Structures are given as structure tokens and as C-alpha cells.
Amino acid sequence: YSFYDGCLPFDMKFTPPGVLPMPMDRGVVCITGKLKSFKTKAQAGAVLVNLGYIVYSSLTKDVTILVNDSGIESAKTKQARESGVEIITDLQSYLEKKYGTSQVDG
Length: 106
Hints:
Layout: E1 28-31, H1 41-50, E2 54-56, E3 65-67, H2 75-83, E4 86-88, H3 91-99
Parallel strand pairs: 1-2, 1-3, 3-4
């Protein structure tokens, strides 16, 4: 208990240096190919991170979702399909269906 509890619009708890708060784990996403639904991969990645996803630049065993907006059957897409990874071909539509348009500004 602290003297300031309830008096300020924030709590007095601090994260120790070097320790990052854990994001909501909604899944690990890898984006491959050219995007149609966002201007850049960085923009799409930022939206995904804000929604609680972890974004990887390469396909690893940790990836649970592969974004392939181009629809081209790349080596990453083939590997993901063989590994049972969910493949999304329209990220904007996927996010709008799952979270509503208010959180998705592509």
C-alpha cells in the first residue's frame, strides 16, 4: 500500500530495468510477401502488436499465423501449410471480423 494509491491517475508500480511487460499472447505472426491491406509490413506489424500479437520476420516453429496477402504460394507458405499454421490471405478483413473496424486503421 502506498500513500498515493487511488489519488493519482496511474499506479506507483514500476517495471524493473531490463524487464518488459508481457504482451497479451494472441499468437505469433509472420508476414510474408507484399501486403494489399496495409501500406507497409511495419504498419501491419504495429497494428498486430497493439492487438496483442507477437510479430516475427521469419517463419519459426513458434509462428501460429502466417499473413500472405499476395496469395503467392511461397516457400514460407508451403512450410506453414505443412506445419499446420493458420494462413491469412487478407489481414485487414481478418482483423475487422475479429476485432471490429474501430481498432483497425490500415
